[in-house]
Amino acid sequence: MRAFISSVYLFLYAPIALVVLFSFNAGRNASEFSGFSTAWYGKALGNSFLVSALQNSLMIAFTSAALAAVFGTMAALGMERLGPRMRALFDALLAAAIVVPGVVIGIATLVALVALFSFVNPALASLWPGERPPQLGLGYGSIIAAHGLFSMALVTMIVKARIASLGRDIVEASSDLYATPLTTFRLIVLPQILPSILAGFLLAFTFSFDDFIIAFFVAGSKTTLPIYVFASIRRGVTPEINAIATMVLAASLALILSARLLIREKKSKSGE
Amino acid sequence: MTAALVAPAAAWLVVFLVLPFVAMLVFAFGERAPEGGYQPAFTFAQFANLPTRATAFWNTLMLAPAGALLCLLVAYPTAYYLAVKANPRFRLILVSLVVVPFWTSLLVRTYAWMYILGSRGIPNLLSMIGIEDVRLLNTPGAVLLGIVYGYLPLMIMPIYVSLEKLDRRLLEASADLGAKPASTFFGVTLPLSLPGVMTGVALVTILLLGEYLIPQLLGGGKVFFIGNALVDLFLQSRNWPFGSAIAVTLVAVVVVVLMVAMRIAWKVAGTRQVDLV
Amino acid sequence: MTKWYRENAPITAVKLADELMRLKRGSVTRRHFLGVTGLGFATAVLARQPGLFNSTAFAGDLGSQMSIATWPNYHDPATFEAFTAATGVAVEVNVFGSNEEMLAKLQAGGTGWDLFVPTNYTISTYAKLGLIDELDMSQLPNYDPSTQNARFTHEGMVDGKTYAVPKNWGTTGIAVNSSKIKAPVSSWKDFFEVAMTEADGRTMVHDYQLTTIGNALVSLGYSFNSIKSDELAKAEELLIRVKPHLYAINSDYQPAMRATDAWMTMCWTNDGAQLNRDMPEIAYVLGKDGGEIWTDFYAIPKSAANKPAGYALLNYLMAPENAVKEHIANGAPTTDSRVLKLLPEEVTSNKIVYPDEASLTPLEFGAAVTLTDPGRAELMARFKAA
Fold this sequence. Notes:
- The complex is a heterotrimer.
- By secondary structure, chain A is mostly helical.
- Chain A is built from 11 helices and no strands.
- Chain A is 80% helix and 0% strand.
- Chain A is globular and about 70 Å long.
- Chain B has helices spanning 2-28, 45-48, 54-85, 88-99, 106-117, 122-128, 140-165, 168-176, 181-209, 213-218, 226-235, 240-269.
- Chain B is globular.
- Chain C has helices spanning 2-6, 13-25, 30-37, 39-48, 77-87, 99-108, 123-128, 150-153, 188-196, 209-219, 229-242, 254-258, 269-278, 307-318, 320-330, 337-342, 345-348, 357-360, 368-372, 374-385; strands at 65-70, 90-95, 115-116, 157-158, 161-162, 165-177, 203-205, 246-249, 264-268, 282-285, 292-298, 364-365.
- In chain C, the strands form 3 sheets. In chain C, strands 6, 7, 8, 9, 10, 11 and 12 form a 7-stranded mixed beta sheet that branches. A 3-stranded parallel beta sheet of chain C has the order 2-1-3.
- Among the domains of chain C are: 2-48, no CATH class; 170-293 and 350-385, Periplasmic binding protein-like II (D-Maltodextrin-Binding Protein, domain 2), CATH 3.40.190.10.
- Chain C is 44% helix and 15% strand.
- By secondary structure, chain C is of the alpha/beta class.
- In chain C, helix 9 (188-196) packs across helix 10 (209-219), helix 10 crosses helix 20 (374-385) and helix 11 (229-242) packs parallel to helix 20.
- In chain C, strand 4 and strand 5 (161-162) form a beta hairpin.
């Protein structure tokens, strides 16, 4: 059993170890180790395309996850009070948003937006009073929207499950005591569902940050980190990519650890 | 109030899910423009052409469940160990370590596998002990390995959660009543963890039905999933209508697989309390 | 010309005087002087278009970034580094495996490319679809049509207008690792036979219709450009039979050939030259039964966001002294006699790069119709999905 478990962890971590190892490669090639060097970290941070791809990815992941967290939570709260028919329809759409494969989401969004723009852009051009009418096109907006679709459905599902597990009685008690719905939400409901919202946000962020296939179709001229990495697999990976991947891994590990410590500190303060 | 709460989500679902799907459906009945792309028409030709992609559909329908089951074979013992056998002091760390790989790009990790399976990796080690010219990369085996690697954490987690909820007193009771470990496992542990297993298998199968990257990188353009056929139709043949028809069909396949999985899950678990998504 | 470029900041009076003194002392050539001071550029423009003083050729703001879409292993990275050093414009290099994919991307819109490298058979379609503009030749003083070999360049012109200027020409042949494969390979017929026998599981074909289908057609005795359905059906039958024996369907075959994961592949001149240079056991063979001869061009997409930078890089690449460095690095033969003159003997005598005229005779240029023919597109897609 032990041996089996160790080999599972070896299986999970061998490629990651390799990625980290090659980030310290002195050579140009990501497939032949020719000495230790940290030069690629500097080169990665000095590569304006790689850095802007990373920034784009962070911005898109944060925005889509934040929108998803807000709208998803609102939907989860509102759905409770929908009629059974509407609720079933809503549930079906949310499930669809989660199970429809990413490649289909990417293609369908592309097809629909290209068709939409072919109507909207000429219309805008004819109505626009000025010299240069705005042109709608693929870009940040389309990636955020397409990522947000899955993320929002995810957050709604998670928060809805949490709300369902909450006792109705404390909410009722609160309103019996003449608290306004908003006060009840702020003081009673929100603290209880906050961990679920945060969990949903984190999942959504991770999903968006790592997504390749949806962005590949709807990104237009924008480059996200996965798109950049995919392109560099074609033109020959340099250890720059390994360096960026290692930095992202280190940053997320640091975040997880500090979150853990924060929670522990909070718990010990509140005397649990 | 209710309307205001659900309005943004509803609008999002309509604009970025329903409308694109409708657009795709419309395109699926259209024609390929002479230079590629789409031109309006009303024809069933695209759907009539679907049998030419039978192999890709078949590959996908075989490899996706096969990949999920292979994943399960590795994931179950791991989850069992984590939930039941592992030292409680290290349990949290061990569980976190299963999730951490998700924080490095799947693309980068799959690229690492390209190296490990390529000539400079394992075949090179094998040639040192006299086994020459072994080829691993760009085979269905490599794709399956990539799949197990990529989806293992997604399989381990639901099983771990269902095993962790398991009341340990049941296991002790079973042992006290003289059951051998094996019969305790098959009589108590396994049935109680089935919801987790079902969730994991269904989740991984459904995600695999739309897989593109792993066959692309580890299959060398030879091991084709329907996702790859789809991308190819948009990025090489520029046949948007046929691509749309395939995408619509793929969604139908996913829905059918999902419904079958739910049916099985309900039957096995004997309850309707199985959350697949 | 390009020296001017390298120090493209407007020259100061002091520096001008300084350079003038150096010229007098003979420590710099006239060429360098003209380059550094920008006079070379001015005279070149004047020579070309009398009276045009306020050319916007390099005067416009080039921005800080641009993007080029090109092929694998096709440029010397040092070229782009030098361009960036000279102009402050960082160049993002996007690599594609097929013209078909480039076209698909441009058709879907929003590529962000400011310059790209289409092959001869695609130019007329791009022009027809309005995806590329006629080039503004006044922004390309380094391009000289009179030094170009018309055999390779005529497809850049559509209806008498220049839409694209040539990058280089080349052939599509067979790269064979002779230490692994002993059977003789000298035709596409041999290629497909060996792929199913000695090179079983070790052969690569391109990931696009033109050459993969074209070479299968050639091996069967048909034209490389055939769109006849019965001939295509035979080619499909052959390709489907070969597929289980292939290592991969991928246009980026250098890594696999270098790692000896693959032993034989469809191969372009430049890759053949690079592979043979580093691994002499890899030979590059032209099919004696036929195959492709091609010219790659530079064109500027209509949708380019930073056209000034696109033109600037194109003009930079057209300068013989830059083109010759690119040539030596990537091994693709030139269409420009000015570049040919600057090449060292070892390049011009390299039979992979400049093969005998006789071996080129059976080869065909790709025909525009193959790009848009639905039969070929669907055949390729079926082959890959099989």
